Amino acid sequence: MIIVSDLDGTLTELGKSSVSPRTLEAAAAWKRAGHHILIATGRSSSSLPVIVRKLSDVDTVICSNGGVVKDLRTGSSTALGCFTSGEAEWIVKTARSLDRTVALRVETTSRLIADHGFQRGQAGSSIVEVCEDPFARLSPQDVIVKLSFHTSEQAYASLFRDVDCAVGRDRIVTPGTAGLSNFDVGPAGVDKGKGVDFVSRLLGFSASDCVALGDMPNDFPMLAWAGQAFCLGEHARDAPAGIRMAPSAAEEGWALTVESLLQSMQGRFDQRSQRSER
């Protein structure tokens, strides 16, 4: 079996980069039982925390909400969808026509480039290039895989709705990290479900082999793809049918879910052993 897990808000509490000791032990127990862990995150391929290598025993990470697959051995990244520069600039122009103060971050397969307004609204990060005009920093080799927008808490809901109405028919608009007033725009047909499907064919596993864990609407396509799926925390009530609820990351939801899965699998193994002895 393979767990496909979101990172922020699922394996870690929102706003924290560390994983709880109980989650680390549950991950270790899962791997000792001969199973695997694959990370699928909204983070860019250039901003993966060290904990990814510690938790995952698969040399592949799904990044950018399914838009990029990164090989941890070689450091190479493959885009599963992208924007042309003209399309990306049109989306930004549309967003700014709705809110001229909206801030921007452009994500490529290897770079994060933000304007000053976006970076002021976020925690600092050395991997983000900050400038007046992110598009002016792009090179012909850059492949744009995601656009992120930041606005005020008061304007967030209406701007998200209006941008989704304006550009969302042919693109995927998803909420960003809870509490940061961000949202993301990705290419059409690209989401975490498509990313997991691509990697499943790469690594040779099927949906029936997969348990998915996430906490936000951008995780829903991945949860719907998997044979078993759990949504942690408050967004579970909005998840598609068939996805089970689990406690939040702050309540050790990841560890509790994995511990329960291991107990259930051990129980089925014991029952089969007893039947074979009769």
Provide structural commentary.
The protein has 9 helices and 14 strands. The protein has 278 residues and is α/β, with parallel strands linked by helices. The strands form 2 sheets. Strands 5-4-3-2-1-12-13-14 form an 8-stranded mixed β-sheet, with helices on both faces. The protein has a 6-stranded mixed β-sheet with strand order 8-7-6-9-11-10. Strand 7, helix 4 (116-120) and strand 8 (128-131) form a beta-alpha-beta unit. Helix 1 (21-32) runs parallel beside helix 9. The longest helix is centred in the last third of the chain and has 25 residues, at 253-277. The radius of gyration is 19 Å and the shape is globular.
What about the largest sheet?
Answer: 8 strands, mixed
* Helix coverage percent: 25-40%
Q: What portion of the residues fall into strands of 2 or more residues?
A: 15-25%
Q: Give me the side-by-side strand order of the main sheet.
A: 5-4-3-2-1-12-13-14
Looking at CATH, which topology of the largest domain would you report? Rossmann fold
The figure for the number of domains is 2
Kindly list the characteristics that best describe this protein.
Rossmann fold, 8-stranded mixed sheet, Hypothetical Protein, Haloacid Dehalogenase-like Hydrolase, Chain: A, domain 2, 2 domains, 6-stranded mixed sheet, 278 residues
